[in-house]
Amino acid sequence: MEQYGKWPPIYDAEDLANAIADLAARSDLEAVFFDPVTSGGPYCQGDVLQLTSGAPVIDTDGGPNLVGEFKYWLAIGNTCDFERELADVAWTQIVPLRDVSTANAEQLATLRAYKPSRRFFVPPWPGLPDGEQYAADLLLPVALHKQAIGSAAQVVARVSRQAWALLHGCLIRFLARDDGRFAP
Amino acid sequence: MIPFGQMFYSTPNATCGYAQVAIVLAADDEWKRSSILIGPTSRTDIPVLMRTAADYTEAIARVLPVNEEADRLVAPLFPEPARRGRITRR
Fold first, then answer.
1. Nearest to B40 among A66, A164, A180 (CB)
2. Hey, which of A10, A83, A176, B70 would disulfide with A115, CB 3.0 to 4.6 Å?
3. Cβ–Cβ contact B90 with A under 8 A
4. Is residue B80 in a domain?
5. Nearest-CA distance B30 → chain A (Å)
6. Who's near A157: CB < 8 A, 6+ residues apart?
């Protein structure tokens, strides 16, 4: 029998659908969402980074502007690109985590059920002060030099296998939305 | 019989695009030969194994359908961030 290491494989579409649905339906999302962080890497898609910075954007005038100020970011770049040499791939992609602690009950329930396609709810991770809640804003991707991670940007949380499957599903939905046949 | 995972890790440069979809180059049976493998490649695991990429995306579409109403409901939580200024050359 093949050996798969830490995580068992998800074999088919039903497995994947069930894994994502089970996670999204859990009331104790926080309990299964994160794995312990190992210092020094390897870094992974789904890592939560602490880095206080605005987001560089190309604005309405076609020029580069800095917008907002964000304390936490979610890595959405390929895990395998973290492994590649800097000469091949120097950059990863991150999106800001935005404070959603003012969400009302309906908004929070919607985020926790992963219904929005442009935002990804990140439950409070171990060590986050009580009351703080964040969701990744997939509309504001930023390129981050890989060498900043571990120095200027610290990994403060790392998603579990289940949560990674959910994140990846949401990224696929955001980037390659379906034709609407499954719309509610 | 060659362990599937071992073979995967022996060909790291032939795998993974943006959606982390990797075609299994060779395997010990027809099912695996036609399969597609999806997952973070630097972890010691292979989390998702699908017959085709279409299976994968259809599973996602079924369980995570696009819901414009949900996006509109939470949009007020994500106002356009304030401009902090033009980025200029140093």
1. A164
2. B70
3. no
4. no
5. 15
6. A34, A37, A47, A48, A122, A125, A126, A127
In a domain, A31, yes or no: yes
Q: Residue B84: inside a domain, yes or no?
A: no
φ, ψ at A55 (rounded to 5°): -105, 120
Question: What is this structure's pTM?
Answer: 0.81
ipTM of the shown complex: 0.87
Are A120 and A135 in contact, with CB atoms under 8 Å apart?
Answer: yes
The 3-state DSSP class for residue A32 equals: helix
Which residue is closest to B2 within chain A, CA to CA? A2
Confidence of residue A92 (pLDDT cuts 50, 70, 90): very high
CA distances from A173 to A18, A114, B59 (A): 16, 11, 11
Residue B62 forms part of a structural domain: yes
User: What's the structural domain count of chain A?
Assistant: 1
Range of the domain at B51: 4-75
- Is A24 contained in some domain? yes
Please state the rounded mean pLDDT for residues A88-93: 94
Q: What is the tally of structural domains in chain B?
A: 1
Residue A6 is assigned to a structural domain of this protein: no
* Domain encompassing residue A130: 13-175
Q: Could you tell me if B74 and A110 are in contact, meaning their C-beta atoms sit under 8 angstroms apart?
A: yes
**How far is A129 from B50, CA to CA, in rounded Å?**
39
Whether A60 contacts chain B with CB within 8 A: no
Report yes or no on B37 lying in a domain.
Answer: yes
Whether B89 and chain A come into contact, CB under 8 Å, resolves to: no
